[in-house]
Every structure is written in structure tokens, then in C-alpha cells.
User: What shape does this take?
Amino acid sequence: MHSDRTALVGLQFGDEGKGKYVTYFLTTERVDVDARYNGGGNAGHTIIAPNGKVLATHQVPSGIVFADVYNAMLHGMFIDPAKLKTEIEDLRAKGYDVDPSNLGISGLAHVTLGHHIELERLDEQRRGRGAIGTTFSGIGPTAEEKYGRRGIRFAEFVNPESFRRLLEAKSEELRQRGYPVENLDFHAETYAALQEFLSPFLIDEAELNRRKRNAAWLYEGAQGILLDPDFGSYPYVTSTHAGKAPRATVVGVAKAYITRVGGGPLPTRMDEQTEALIRGERGSAGAEFGATTGRPRSCGWFDIPAARYAVEIGGVDVVALTKLDVLSRVPVIKVCTHYDCDGRLLDTIPADRFELERCKPVYEEVRGWPGVDISGARILGDLPVEARDYLKMLQDALERPIEPVSVGPSAEQTIEM
Ligand code: IMP
Ligand code: MG
Assistant: This one.
């Protein structure tokens, strides 16, 4: 079966610290293939390369900076060719090899072009105060075209003849729908350099699967279950599937608290003072600012109803926790055990957006371990009893093993159970 396949999936609103566990898996386990299967230019994973350098990956799987890992960008992704070229050039400038021997892009992935980003700008403007707060990476409009059966696949993008035909049709389509096509860059020549640069990376996904059938795969999820268009806090979600991993052992990654960037509800948001402590200074390691957009993240207490929901919806086998060390900054820790919605106690997230708006978190206060530096802990016994109680509380609520637990950015700063 697929015992050699592990998927890392975010259980919250993205930014759970998946990059930490990507680094951890690539450092401590055998990984032959590191695959991305969702997200696009909106994603950002902070990882630590084997040479100790910290870097952010966006569309390219993080295995690219590790030796002997083949990196695959698969069908669920929305590829922004211009940003991808820049990312590959940046990686090369930093001394990492990127070529068809260690990177392949599925012809089934869809591409995000300039007009998608322009359409997203118009869409967010139209929504006004109800804006989604997107990353302006063209994700929503690319999804609309994909599911409206008007999208362009990567295989078609890198084939100049196919692309020319699709671009002509696209231009006509947008004109008929009343979009200001004159302002959009709709010339095949603009894309020629990108096509030439990216075409060597084109792969056949079925052939890759056949060739790597017995290999060890790591699926590197982007965003998180609460941003998935099916399962997330709709409509404040992204538009690629962040919640359903390929068949694999599913490791759900959650922060020891919760953060969110962009619009939409965060029921357990902390008071301003506590939030400032947890967020940290812009630019400091692990500070809560977006890796792709630099926006400050809203911070909240661990939300058990949301996590319980995500664990069940995502078919999660184990929960890997991150940033437990950050909680050393606060004297008292709160945990949301239920939502109170119109006097009813809820165990998970309601599907009706207005009901969710009315949900009030019900908290339990637990004892913290203020000022105790736990970043050097390597086994459970190294943690203060309050921290162990906290883990036990989450484990009982989620009915899943919590392992490993991360207490710092490096792969070594990990507690194995
Ligand atoms: P979009 O994916 O750019 O359309 O943005 C939709 C929502 O998802 C916004 O709230 C974004 O802030 C959020 N989002 C998208 N990508 C990420 C990510 O990688 N981490 C955290 N939030 C994200
Ligand atoms: Mg991120």
C-alpha cells in the first residue's frame, strides 16, 4: 500500500509552520519525491536548508534545496509562470541546482496569467468591506476559469501553438463579458520567454506516478483546511483544495495557538496586548507576519472545535504541533473548548456563515509556564508539567496522537513522543 507516503496538511488557516515539518521530514526521513498538489503564488513556506540558511519557498517544493529529492508540482496547483521563473532564478542565484532532473511540472496544472490578477483586483474592489483579503495572486479567477471549463493547463501554456489559440479565445471571451480587455496584456509574444524558460520542466503526471510508484513521497500541502473552498470558512477561503491530501498518512499540522491573515472570522482572537506578545516583532524569527505578503497575522487561542472539525474532515492520522515555545510568553493560556451559538453548545464549526458569526468561544483557562524557555526541550520529560498538561488536553479533545511537537524553527527543536 502507501506506507511510504506522508502528507503534511494545515489544520488551521495556513501558516501553521508546515515548513518546519517539511524541513524535519526532509532532514530525518527518506524522501524521494516532494510534491506540491495545491496552492500557487499565494503560498509561502519558511524552511531551513541543509546549509543552515533560512529561505521561503512559494511554488517550488521545498525539497529543491535538498540533495537527491525529486520535486513535483502536480495537477491541483495554479502556476504563475512569471513568478515561478523568478523563484527558480532566485534559487539558482543562491547556489541551488534547479533543472529537469530535480523539478517537474505536471501538464495538468492550470496557469495563472496577468488577467487573473487584474480580475481579482476588480472583484475585491467590488466586494468592498466584505473583501476576502486575498494575496492578489490570481487564485480565485484561475479557479473560476478552471471550473467554468475555460482554463489553460500548463501543458497548453508551454506549447506556443496551443497557447496562441487559447489566448485568442480568452481575449474574445473576456471582451464579450464586458471586461476591459484593452488594458490587459494579451499578446502571445509577452509569454514567449516564459514558455521557453519553463517548457523543459513539463512532465506527464501519470508517467511520474508509474516511475515513482515505490518511492517515498512527501506531499507538501499549502494553506490549511479552514481555507479550503469546500471545508473552510466560506466565502473567506482560497480557491485551490487545501484540505484533501492525496492518499497517504496524513499529518495535520497545527500551531499551539491559531493565526489568520486576510478577511473572515477568527472566533478565538486574543486581546490586543496578548496578541502583540504572541505576534512578536516584525522581522524577528517566527514573528506572525505573512511570508508572501508581509501582512500582520491576527492571533487567537487554540480553537478545539475548529481543530476537531479539521482533523475529522481531513482524515488526519496524527497531529503535529508547532510553536509551543511561543506560549512561554503569556502568563495564562486560554483554550476554546466549545462554541456557544444562540445558547447551544457546539463541538465543531457550523456550515452557515451567519451562524458562525454568532458563535462565541467558550474558554477554559489553563496554567501556563511563563518565562520558562522550552526551546531546548527534546523529550516530553524536558517540558514543565503545565506544558505537558496542555498537550494532554489537546490530545484528549482531538482523539489523535499529538506528535511531534515543535519548540523552535530548526529540525532538531522537535520533541518526539
Ligand atoms: P487567496 O488564496 O490569495 O485567494 O486568498 C484567500 C485567503 O486565503 C486570504 O484570506 C489569504 O490571506 C489566505 N491565504 C492564501 N494563501 C495563504 C497562505 O499561504 N497562508 C495563509 N493564508 C493564506
Ligand atoms: Mg505561509
Q: What stands out?
A: The chain is about 30% helix and 20% strand. The chain has a mean pLDDT of 95. Residues 160-176 form the longest helix (17 residues).
